Amino acid sequence: MPKKTVTFREDLIIRVVKKHSLIIEFLVKEKTKMEKVKNMFAEELGVDKSHLCFIYKDRFIAHDDTVETLGLQHRDEITVLSLEQVEPGVYDLVGLD
C-alpha cells in the first residue's frame, strides 16, 4: 500500500503493532518523544510499560527517541514485544498474544 501524504506538515500517523493482531495508530509530531507513545500504548492495553519493548527497523526505541530521530515516516510500523522474566536475572523477549 503506498504511503499517503499528510495534510499537516508536522503531523503523521505511526502504527504500533502487537503481534500482527492489534494495530493502534497515533497521530504524532516530529518532536514527539517515544515515551509518550509508549505510555499511551501501555495504557490502552492496561499493561505496565516497563514490560514492553518497542522496536523499529531492528532497533530498540529509547524513551527520549523522537519521530524525527528515528526517521519515522507516515504509517511506519513499530513492533511491540513483551519482556518476561524466565528465571531470576534472566529475561526473554516474546511477542504479545
From TrEMBL:
Residues 10-81 form the Ubiquitin-like domain. Pfam families: Rad60-SLD. InterPro entries: Rad60/SUMO-like_dom, Ubiquitin-like_dom, Ubiquitin-like_domsf. It comes from the Eukaryota. PROSITE patterns: UBIQUITIN_2. This is Ubiquitin-like domain-containing protein. The lineage of its organism: Eukaryota, Metazoa, Ecdysozoa, Nematoda, Chromadorea.
